[in-house]
Amino acid sequence: MGTDRHFLESLLGRMTLEEKVGQLSLYSADVKLAGAETVNPALTFKAPQSRFEDIRAGRVTGVFNGYGEAYIRALQTIAVEDSRLGIPLIFGADVIHGFRTAFPVPLAEAASFEPELAERVAETAAAEAAAEGLHWTFAPGADLCRDARWGRVVESYGEDTLVASRFAAARVRGFQGDDLRDPRRLMATVKHFAAYGAAEAGLDYNTAEISRTTLVDHYLPPYRAAVEAGAGAVMTAFNDVDGVPASANRELLTGLLREQWGFKGFTVSDYNSDFETIVHGLADSPREAARLCFLAGLDMCMQSGLYADQLAGLVADGAVEEAAVDRSVLRVLAAKQALGLFENPYRGLGAAFDPGPARALAREAARRCPVLLKNRDGVLPLKAGARVALIGPFAREHQNLNGAWAIFAANGQSVNLEDGFRAALGDQALIVEPGCAISEALPGGLEAAAAAAAGADVVLLALGEGQHMSGESRSRTDIGLPAAQIELAQAMRRTGKPIVTLLRTGRPLAIPELAALSDALLVTWFLGCETGAAVADLVLGRAAPSGRLPMSFPRHVGQAPIYYARKATGRPPRDPPGPFTARYIDAEPGPLYPFGFGLGYGRIDYGPTRVSPADLAGSGAVTVSCELTERAGADIEEVVQLYVHDVAASRVRPVRELKAFRKVAVAAGARVVVEFELRREDLGFADGTGGWTVEPGAFEVWIAPNAEAGVPARFVLRSEAGA
Ligand code: GLC
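# alpha-D-glucopyranose complex -> structure
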């Protein structure tokens, strides 16, 4: 970030220690101001005057999740006009998937397999938030997640390291652009560092129980991709890694982040996570918690006030050097300067923002995320003139369109399923019945739904999770659908009408029965403010589904964590399962639907995977190619995936690893050849001693439509010397 170092150092030279500590203290918008809104759980609610006094005294570096011109202007005026040095506040917020305009949740975005789309969405969200005076977003989340029980999987990019890396980096670029002085940009924060998504048993905040090589190979690269994309801040995770809470983990925050990755921004705790090192059982006092976190490399406290209470004392006692405090303060001041806040503390505030293009983008994005898992006899797209019964708890409600962390969404103008289909079908027959509530039956609901279905040619069954069934602190032990919804689905099956299930969810669900009784199954995730318009576009054929699963759908929650990049074991599962193999005696092997799977309205036949040359020597590359042929006579956008498997290595490697993907448009009946290049550096892995290794030997390689399909080709990686 371009900064005028001399200005910052001269400012630092005029700061008292208390003012320096103030620059390391971030608080939630727990001040209630007329005309202002706040969305944070104000754990330490303060009366407005005392918070204003804190700002006036230079004890606050910024505020988060407050918004509105009245609010931001009032607090910023105190900071820049009444405080001794006039250092501007930084205003942060959880702009996770949109600000006023709610876009698809991150897991849905990942299903598009279009990082460039995510970049455009982030850019639009930044412009909308910056126009209300915000400077800093606490996104992207880059937490790899392999366990659908974890509630925050909805905020993740799923189970694959490459997908998560590409999307995290794209979102940083979208939020930040090339110059943070641009008043339409936000500084990005990559979170939650590190391995928050590895929570054991899918239980939020739980310990991350993974091996060192799994951490390095699979969980760390998405954070690194976001750092290398230029993220201005890193937020620490609530969990411990190898017994050390992330907010006090020097190996992560200094050894890895700064010394190995060269991160130059600042680190910030998650909400009280620094203080919680006491609860973890690492520190035995707030003073010790502050000492351990600061010496580990945590620059800024979010909400706890830990440094405000303890850091000056630690400096006075010599436990922390003031020079170290100065380094942290300079990082924060540099971020404020990069944002142009010293030139214009009211940067962006009140700028014009036209929501029209944002809504158009929301509809386009919402069209590109759904995943078609089943389409028996081509029931989709619906035939023109079909009489439609839209049934289910999500048929006509607005409260569950956005998913978790859409805390600023302007829901008044959102388009629910009924709105979308009524607008698309005009006066064509559309009858709507809830049939049941999200988690319980409705008196007479099944009967009313059956009557509605009787008069229709097709049933659109809108089922799934409510938006509070995923998100922070919303892990589930059962990832099926509520019984009331299954009963409704069974009742619809009994009508004999074709059933198109529209599955709203923030996570992979274990839905074998629902999948079996549906003629078509479209996973719609949480798509945001244009949900109904986008789903109608897909169901009626004005657009075609092109999403693919960013995460495996299990047959049963008992399989969790289930993911494609698994190790073979010495006795891999067989189908049909055999004795003395890796199997459950009460469930079929493998996922219900694998990573990367999804259908379109066209159908692609994959030719054999070819690789040339057969040997990869020195710094060369092999070209992997495959001929795709469209067979159904309909255009399709196919997500072509490149997987490798290192057949034998010093540490056993996953049975497949995604090394590239590309969404390719294939016209009806067309043949296209898709090519990828693989190089030596694409084939490395952590050697378990802190290093990275690439080992000669045989590799299998696939160009395939998902992680379970295809027949591999082989090539040999020669040693650097060519042996
Ligand atoms: C929450 C979340 C984090 C969020 C922060 C501020 O607890 O863990 O993702 O950015 O607090 O709201």
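# post-check
The mean pLDDT is 95.
Residues 65, 94, 138, 191, 270-271, 472 surround alpha-D-glucopyranose (CB under 6 Å).
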